[in-house]
Amino acid sequence: MEQPRRPYDIDRLTDVALAVFAQRGFDGASMDDVARAAGITKAAIYHHVSGKEELLERGLRRALEALFAMLDESGASEGRPVERLRYIVRRVAELAIEVLPELTVLVRVRGNSETERNAIERRRAFDAIVAGIVRAAQEAGEFDPALDAAIVVRLIFGMCNSIVEWYRPHGRYTSSDIADAVVRIVFEGPQLGP
Amino acid sequence: MEQPRRPYDIDRLTDVALAVFAQRGFDGASMDDVARAAGITKAAIYHHVSGKEELLERGLRRALEALFAMLDESGASEGRPVERLRYIVRRVAELAIEVLPELTVLVRVRGNSETERNAIERRRAFDAIVAGIVRAAQEAGEFDPALDAAIVVRLIFGMCNSIVEWYRPHGRYTSSDIADAVVRIVFEGPQLGP
After folding, report:
1. In this structure, which CATH number among 1.10.357.10, 1.25.40.10, 1.10.10.10, 3.40.50.300 belongs to the domain A57-188?
2. How far is B5 from chain A (nearest CA, A)?
3. Is A192 on the interface with B (CB under 8 A)?
4. ipTM of this model?
5. Is the minimum CB–CB distance between B148 and chain A shorter than 8 Å?
6. Nearest chain A CA: its distance from B42 CA (Å)
7. Domain parsing of chain A, residue ranges
8. Which of B110, B14, B25 is nearest to B63 (CA)?
């Protein structure tokens, strides 16, 4: 059944553009592709936005806002450091799915423009906050002190970020299946026995 | 100190092209960029290769050959399934660094051409072999049976693949530091205490 058509506004155009960027890559996607996907003319798009860069900027902002907003949730901000860390890792895995097009575009930025470099800088700030929590967990004797906190954060988020590359909505796995697997692998140590 | 100049051959051109693709993305890189990086004319490049696609194909082949060759090493092919798995995970993390430009290009392919789709198919075959080892480890009671083997493989290799995005040669961390961290996180369960 076809969705009733909302008139285009900047948010809906951003939705369409993100899907196009996620599929073709930002560099590989043109405003013609966005117009085609939206079913409107390029002129009509330029009525709403200044160009591809602005659509990217809006998509990246959504992704970063979702990540930072999560850090304010009580599970991420209260309790023992290792419990906060588990909560954050689970939520980052869930967000990879819940905010899939936005996170897809975020994890693929390479710093080719001012917009991309700003996003990388904010993402690094996010990672640095989480690395601080890893260090707090290590100081509390709750997390392997032999691991470098910065490497831990990069590797764990590398695992979470990879979800955007293979997760398919309405496929076999739910967001919760995948988040459970991430937490089990990272925190439980799935190897059994000697 | 400048390296003595080898005359260009197809392998050296592939090296240069891979570095350009890793930096600018395959879609964002042109043969002009490759020629500039090689310090020769585009005409001279076309003397050696048919085009950008052939350079990509050669790079992807190197990456896949490195991965499959590793599966024949005794650590990957002999012993208890869980020990083979640990060995493979460590080696994939090391290969991300040892064969950095090749693996960078491989982990970023999106299936935009026949060459990319072939590479994705071979990479999937590699993942399927490793998923078989995860299942064997589960059947032997050596690995958490609650985890889906296909998800485990995707997540662990997602972690390994992410190394290409942040590892910098001659930086703070060696290939062995990073491979150790991957194995500790994935197999040991870094959370301590209750």
Report:
1. 1.10.357.10
2. 30
3. yes
4. 0.90
5. yes
6. 22
7. 57-188
8. B14
Contact B114/A at CB under 8 A: no
Structure tokens that stand for B9 in this block: 């051959």
Amino acid code (one letter) for A130: V
Distance between CA atoms of residues A75 and A60, nearest Å: 24
What is the rounded distance in angstroms from the CA atom of residue B140 to the CA atom of residue B137? 5
Whether A143 and chain B come into contact, CB under 8 Å, resolves to yes
Q: Which residues pair with B112 in a beta bridge?
A: none
What are the pLDDT digits (tens) for A86-142?
A: 999 999 999 999 999 999 999 989 888 999 999 999 999 999 999 999 999 999 999
For residue B151, give the nearest of A181, A186, A192 by CB distance.
A181
For B141, the closest of A28, A146, A192 (CB atoms) is A192
Domain at B58-188, CATH homologous superfamily: Tetracycline Repressor, domain 2 (1.10.357.10)
pLDDT of B4 reads: 55
